[in-house]
Specification:
Helix content of chain A is about 75%, strand content about 0%. With about 450 residues, chain B is α+β, with helices and mostly antiparallel strands. In chain B, strand 3 and strand 4 form a beta hairpin. Classes of the chains: A mainly alpha (about 300), B alpha+beta (about 450).
Chain lengths: ~300, ~450
């Protein structure tokens, strides 16, 4: 065993040190426009890309909005002018006050819409009976998708999932302790993410190159949970759970980015109070879930006789 | 109190029963099989024997690995869904083979146990303990259902009352595991009679057990009352209010508790075509003093519709009973005395000579009022009260006594003896008013 580990080390180091000779070969081999074009274009993106970048920045709803968007929000407030806040409209007043005093409207919108997403998860799990990965994961996924944009999010998520599965598959056979295993798994995921970033850049997918790191971290945590699920409960349940988690994440993403909903919640934030009685009603529903009607169909015929 | 005839769903199970009756500490203890096992052993509840528990690397290093040759199982204490369990069918001190015919060396086993320590197989990925358990050899009754894994009996016990039961038969699809959602077969068991009625596999109803010619209905589980009592005692000891108790019947020791589950599944309702919710609501407010009473209640109020057609297995014997002896195709009827003061049955040597019984090579020790001694013995098969009994009986000269045969305690399992009753009275169905509570005769 010891000899095997030593050999492994030796092999790794020899690859690393002989890397100098490798390093000279590949750069020109890669058929990517970014690298193979003249060096002048390497550092600064073209005007077209610049424009796209600007657009992407405006689209990122997790970041504070730009001046233009801010003006739009302020114009929106004229639809509901609150000068003298009372019991029914003090929430609206505070939202408007906050935005006027420099708190990003995007942040407020996300905060206010969060309980809606949570209630949606409650409904899907307790009333419809479909499984999701905990409660926070679909919500976190929705917000991550808002931050990355749908294409980049999909690319990243599939890359990270694939990497996690491959990592688990490889590491299953290697007999080392758990924590170092997780570190190696993280290394494999990192390499994959890096490769996907480089590849996306080479194909000119600009949205992915502008990623901040936190969505990536969130996606890594998420895929770790999915793979853990596959390990403890088997592949089939893991696929089902992943499917519904992704579905809910996407629906959540849609809710968070629909212009009408965003404007409405900013104008009438009191609406979130509706969730209070709604959740109490959902929380006292002890009947069968929709999926259980199917599961116990035969039995129900028999019992009700 | 109105009782809903609704099926028990997840929402109702979680909020109305698990949250209320399974408190944090008991639930945490139930998830740790090693703790549960120690609790059972302390309370005299039979369970699989713990050969060795490992909590530290030092303990693992210093262990002798002197394990039974016929096999054992290595398990994580907080395992989930059968992950991390290795079952060995043989062991030579340095290596062994698992039931799936994989060879393991001592080094590999140690490495596996280190993995368990790291919490790879524990539900919450927290550091875990490992233990070695004696291998369970099931009673032959359970062997006929298939070769995969270990069939067990799941009984849901609530408030000291057995609520519903099923026989779980592992399949190839379930990889030898007895969990229904993994593809095992669930066969519903009537609580009064211990007789099966319906069976499901992946929510489809079955007429026959796949791969066999056994009908899924009409299987009578042996030692049924004992099994229910054991499950109820296990629930009481565990501190869980609502528990799924898994029991296997072992070849040598009879029913033992395999494990106890704090979140039992709901498919048992499909296997019994009955609602858990209705039954739970019916017994929720009852004040049950002990396990015996709980089993009694369950047998009365959850009796299956066909139960009145099933004869009770427990027979009442008078002091003198006719027995029929069988040997080599011959048979003969004799009067026997039921003697609860004797351990073994004894038979007069004239009968032995008459039938031509072969004496066993080893004599047996007997002790009696006239002092102990060694007597020859024979293998004896006889019919008593409608039950066929195979036993070993001592041979003595009983010519000076009134009855040529006495039946000892060893052969009286499952019978009641009523000394006030003579055989003639019983056959004329005369029942003394004062003892009528002792009779549990069938209604038909």
């Amino acid at each position: 065993m010891k000899r095997k580990i030593f050999a492994l080390f030796l092999a790794t180091f020899s690859v690393v040190f002989s890397g100098q000779s490798f390093a000279q070969i590949p750069i020109n081999v890669l058929p990517t426009p970014l690298i193979s074009t003249e060096s002048g274009e390497l550092a600064t993106p073209s005007a077209e890309q610049q424009k796209e970048l600007e657009k992407r920045k405006e689209e990122d709803l997790t970041k504070p909005e730009e001046e233009k968007a801010k003006k739009e929000f302020l114009a929106l407030f004229s639809k509901r002018q609150i000068n003298d806040p009372g019991l029914t409209d003090f929430m609206g007043f505070f939202v408007q006050y906050a935005v006027r005093n420099g708190i990003p409207a995007n942040t407020i919108i996300l905060i206010l819409l969060l309980p809606f997403l949570a209630t949606m998860v409650v409904f899907v799990r307790n009333i419809l009976g479909f499984p999701t990965l905990e409660m926070l994961v679909p919500i976190a996924l929705a917000i991550t998708l808002v931050a990355t944009g749908p294409e980049a999010g999909a690319i990243l998520l599939s890359t990270i999932l694939l990497a996690s599965i491959i990592a688990r598959y490889i590491l299953k056979r290697i007999r080392i302790m758990q924590l170092p295993k997780m570190a190696i798994s993280m290394l494999i995921v990192s390499v994959f993410v890096f490769v996907s970033l480089v590849t996306s850049a080479s194909f000119g997918l600009i949205s992915i190159t502008q990623l901040s790191f936190f969505p990536v971290l969130l996606l890594i945590l998420l895929s770790d949970k999915i793979v853990g699920l596959q390990l403890s409960r088997g592949t089939k349940p893991a696929i089902v759970v992943t499917f519904f988690t992704l579905l809910l994440g996407s629906i959540g993403y849609a809710i968070l980015s629909i212009e009408f909903i965003r404007g409405y919640i900013l104008l009438y934030p009191e609406i979130i109070l509706v969730l209070l009685p709604l959740n109490i009603v959902l929380g006292r529903y002890f009947g069968l879930r929709l999926t259980e009607y199917k599961r116990f169909a035969e039995l129900r015929r028999y019992v009700s006789q | 109190m109105s009782v809903s005839n609704q099926v028990l769903g997840m929402n109702a199970r979680n909020f109305l029963y698990l949250n209320r009756y399974n408190k944090g500490r008991a639930k945490f203890a139930a998830d740790d099989k090693l703790t549960t096992k120690k609790l059972f052993i302390k309370n005299n509840i039979p369970t699989a024997t713990i050969i060795q528990a490992f909590a530290t690397r030092k303990g693992l290093k210093n262990y002798s690995w002197d394990l039974p040759k016929e096999g054992f199982a290595i398990k994580p204490a907080r395992g989930y869904g059968g992950e991390g369990i290795l079952v060995f069918k043989n062991w030579d001190g340095l290596s062994g083979t698992t039931i799936s015919s994989r060879a393991y060396t001592l080094k590999q086993i140690k490495s596996h146990i280190l993995d368990i320590f790291d919490g790879i197989y524990s539900l919450q990925s927290i550091p875990d303990k490992a233990y070695i358990e004696g291998r369970i050899v099931p009673h032959r009754f359970f062997k006929k259902f298939g070769s995969m894994g270990l069939p067990d009996i799941r009984i849901i016990v609530f408030n000291k009352i057995p609520i519903m039961a099923m026989l779980r038969i592992p399949t190839e699809e379930s990889h030898g595991r007895a969990n229904l959602h993994q593809g095992a077969i669930g066969v519903g068991i009537g609580l009064r009679t211990g007789i099966t009625k319906y069976a499901i596999l992946r929510n489809k109803y079955l007429k026959f057990i796949p791969g066999t010619k056994i009908k899924t209905s009409g299987i009578k589980i042996p030692n049924w009352e004992e099994i229910m009592l054991l499950a109820t005692r296990a629930q009481i000891v565990s501190g869980l209010g609502f528990a799924g108790v898994d029991i296997v019947v072992e070849k040598k020791r009879g029913p033992i508790v395999l494990e106890i589950n704090a979140r039992p599944g709901l498919s048992i309702q499909n296997a019994n075509l009955a609602s858990l919710r209705e039954r739970l609501e019916r017994v929720e407010a009852l004040n049950v003093p002990n396990a015996e009473r709980g089993v009694e209640i369950a047998r009365s109020i959850f009796a299956e519709k066909f139960s009145h057609k099933v004869k009770e297995e427990r027979k009442i014997l008078s002091v003198i009973e006719p027995v029929t002896i069988f040997f080599n195709g011959k048979s003969g009827e004799y009067k026997a005395k039921i003697d609860t003061g004797a351990y073994r049955s004894s038979i007069d040597k004239s009968i032995v000579e008459e039938f031509g019984f072969h004496l066993l090579p080893d004599n047996i020790h007997v002790s009696s009022a006239s002092g102990g001694g060694v007597r020859p013995a024979i293998k004896l098969e006889f019919n008593l009260g409608g039950k066929k009994i195979s036993t070993i009986a001592s041979v003595a000269d009983r010519s000076h006594l009134q009855f040529p045969i006495i039946i000892g305690r060893r052969d009286l399992k499952g019978f009641y003896v009523n000394p006030l009753l003579s055989h003639e009275q019983k056959s004329s169905r005369f029942v003394d008013q004062d003892d009528h509570y002792e009779y549990d005769l069938p209604e038909e």
